[in-house]
Amino acid sequence: MIKTRYSVKASIVFCLLVIIFSACNKYEISEKQAEVFLKFFGSYQEDVGADVQIDDDGGYVVVGTWTTTDYARQICLIKTDKYGNEVEWSPRFFGDTLDDYGYGLRILEDGYVLVGTSTDENDEKNIILVRTDKEGNAKTGFPKIFDLPGNEEGFDVDVSLNGGFAIVGYADNLPLGAGGKDLYFLETDAAGDSINARSVPYEGDEQYTCIVTISDGYMLLGQLKSLTGNQTYNIILCKANNVGRVISPIEFGTSMNDEGECLIMNPDGSGVLCGTSTSADGTQSAIFLASFSTDLTINTIQVEEPVSGSFTAKSVVVTPEGNYVLVGSEIQTDENIYLLGLDANGARMFYTTFGRTGSQTGSSVRITPDGGFIILGNNAFEGNSMITLIKTGPEGSMD
User: Fold this and answer.
1) Which helix (H) or strand (E) segment is 194 a member of?
2) Contact at 8 Å (CB) between 72 and 91?
């Protein structure tokens, strides 16, 4: 049965006041508040959440960017309990006195690993890698900054096959590059020291956005300028070997500009990805969703979008029943975070939006052990933004 809920679109400002008062005493929190909540984090300046993961203790871990009073922007690591309340040591900040941005996160047995971008004194961008213990303290020798000629950014990270870390993003101005941004893979050892780097140059600007380590290599997702000469950007899905060399690149997309945003792998080597298709003039956008087989045959799923307007898709999860749940932004007069449930054929099962005044954008979603969802997003109003963490019940219920 199709369900559409707009009742949760209460004023973010009002919700913030309610949450501030209701969360003052952690000892008065009921189990019900672990099932649904809405929390805000940040400096009330310009703060952005990029990724959320569920920790081993049932709490949540967030990576993003936080504008501090002492510096400019810094990478932030936020840790909460299952109620969405920050633990005693949270947040932690990483970076220099210039702008740093946090994008990717993985949970390790003994801590966390983060990847992002650090800006140097020449206003050039460099990849930054941070490894921490379970209390968010940077381990000895970290952060690591990888400074190549020109600009490079890291957007995602995973544990590599050698027990170190594999980072993906882009690098420009490489000696063998084609000009512009090139697809870039960087492998480190467990201490964060570079041991291998590979770029794939195409004409135009390309970048990897996601990496998943598999048994015999890596699956990589990104976008590149179409090789057919139609001047649009397409999604690229690559299988790489154990040292990151691309062996099976697949280019696909629509007649619009397509961006790959999220990659999910199944145990058998098949998977699911999502992204956004945007018109050439940038005025219209739509959800792109596809599954792929073990031989990388792409099956584009026709998504039943819930209302007219534009949509971005930033994150997808697959439920135990084989259905899809996506998070992104619904763009009407304002932007709202959405949670969209689809069956295996792309038919809408449920739809919930969050937000009203200003701009609310969705970044990441995970399935929680109780069958609900944890959503990371951002709430912006009049030039300021805060990181938003939303816990829902099944089908996006806030009841």
Assistant:
1) strand 194-200
2) no
- Judge whether residue 25 has pLDDT over 60: no
Residue 117: pLDDT over 90: yes
* Percent of the chain with pLDDT strictly greater than 70: 88
Tokens of 62: 């967030």
Residue listed under structure tokens 């707009």: 6
Quote the pTM value: 0.90
Residues in the chain: 399
- Asked if 232 and 253 touch (Cβ cutoff 8 Å), the reply is yes
- Give the whole-angstrom CA distance, residue 305 versus residue 182: 33
- Whether the Cβ atoms of residue 119 and residue 98 lie closer than 8 Å to each other: yes
> What b/e string do you get for 105-143 counting C-beta neighbours within 10 Å, with b at 16 or more?
bbeeeebbbbbbbbbeeeebbbbbbbbbebebebbeebb
pLDDT exceeds cutoff 50 at 8: no
Which 3 state secondary structure label does DSSP give 21? helix
Contact indicator for 168, 196 with CB cutoff of 8 Å: no
User: According to DSSP H, which parts of the chain are helical?
Assistant: 12-22, 32-35
Per the structure block, which two tokens stand in for 55?
């920790």
Q: If DSSP codes are grouped into helix, strand and coil, which group holds residue 20?
A: helix
The alpha carbon dihedral of 72, 77, 81, 83 has a sign of: positive
Distance separating alpha carbons of residues 130 and 366, to the nearest angstrom: 23
Owner of token pair 């929390």: 39
How much is the pLDDT for 28? 43
CA of residue 373 relative to chain centroid, distance: 15
For residues 173 and 179, give the distance between their C-alpha atoms in angstroms, rounded to a whole number.
7
Q: Which residues of 283-303 are buried (b: 16+ CB within 10 A; e: fewer)?
A: eebbbbbbbbeeebeeeebeb
